[in-house]
């Protein structure tokens, strides 16, 4: 208490804020506010960047899956092509077989460019390329024997080649399925992350 003119007055508590002038307050609050805004902006920017990145990887996974499906489709076209020729002797089936050979190598080239950073998938792609080369060589041999005179020896060789081709196609389908399942797993993980960042981005903007 303070005594003044014979009366008592209660002293006001000391206020640090009140003791500062307007300019001093500005010098303190403006940098603080700027730091807070910068931190918020950085958080929003990072959330948006992560969302965009995961979206890009989802598109990448979808393209890998579509490309490996194209490899499977071209393989089936090739098998149907030479079987159709063997049954009908119609050369139109040979044309579809030739188109399938071009198509499968184009798909494998695209697949190589998509998975070049993934060691396991690159190995699977290389295996498919090797098996595809063997497959079309086998088809050419089968067609060659189909065009030869029908003898017991030729028939036996043709049967052996077709049996080997069946085993070859089975191996290729197995690799295609392994490839597809691995990329489907990648797609599932990336979709979950993308969904998380999709919800985080509006929240970050709201808080900011």
Secondary structure blueprint with pairings:
Blueprint: E1 2-4, E2 7-9, H1 22-88, H2 92-114, H3 119-147, H4 152-207
Antiparallel strand pairs: 1-2
Helix pairs in contact: 1-2, 1-3, 1-4, 2-3, 3-4
Would you write up a description of this structure?
A hairpin with a 2-residue loop joins strand 1 and strand 2. The longest helix is centred in the first third of the chain and has 67 residues, at 22-88. It is elongated and about 75 Å long. It has 4 helices and 2 strands; from the N terminus they run E-E-H-H-H-H. Helix 1 runs antiparallel to helix 4, helix 2 (92-114) packs antiparallel against helix 3 (119-147) and helix 3 (119-147) runs antiparallel to helix 4. Strands 1-2 form a two-stranded antiparallel sheet. By secondary structure, it is an all-alpha fold. Helices cover 84% and strands 3% of the residues.
Give the overall form: elongated
- For the termini, the CA-CA separation is 47 Å
Radius of gyration: 36 Å
SS class: mainly alpha
Number of helices: 4
Helix content: over 70%
The unreliable regions are none
The percent range for strand residues is under 5%
- DSSP E strands, number: 2
Biggest β-sheet, characterized? Answer: 2 strands, antiparallel
Placed side by side, the strands forming the largest sheet appear as 1-2
Task: Give the topology string: H per helix, E per strand.
Answer: EEHHHH
Mean pLDDT across all amino acids: 80
Task: For this entry, give a set of tags.
single chain; 208 residues; two-stranded antiparallel ribbon; 4 helices
């Amino acid at each position: 208490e303070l005594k003044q003119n014979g009366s008592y007055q209660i002293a006001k508590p000391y206020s640090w804020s009140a003791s500062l002038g307007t300019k001093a307050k500005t010098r303190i609050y403006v940098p603080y506010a700027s730091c807070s805004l910068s931190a918020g902006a950085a958080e929003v920017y990072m959330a948006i960047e992560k969302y965009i990145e995961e979206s890009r990887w989802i598109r990448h996974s979808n393209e890998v899956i579509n490309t490996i499906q194209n490899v499977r489709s071209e393989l089936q076209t090739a098998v149907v092509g030479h079987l159709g020729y063997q049954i009908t002797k119609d050369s139109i089936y040979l044309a579809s077989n030739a188109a399938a050979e071009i198509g499968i190598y184009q798909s494998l080239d695209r697949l190589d460019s998509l998975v070049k950073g993934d060691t396991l998938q690159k190995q699977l792609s290389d295996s498919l390329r090797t098996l595809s080369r063997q497959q079309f060589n086998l088809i050419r041999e089968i067609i060659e024997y189909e065009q030869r005179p029908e003898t017991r020896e030729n028939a036996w060789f043709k049967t052996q080649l077709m049996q080997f081709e069946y085993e070859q196609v089975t191996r290729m389908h197995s690799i295609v399925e392994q490839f597809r399942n691995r990329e489907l797993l990648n797609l599932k993980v990336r979709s979950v992350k993308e969904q998380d960042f999709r919800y985080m981005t509006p929240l970050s903007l709201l808080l900011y």
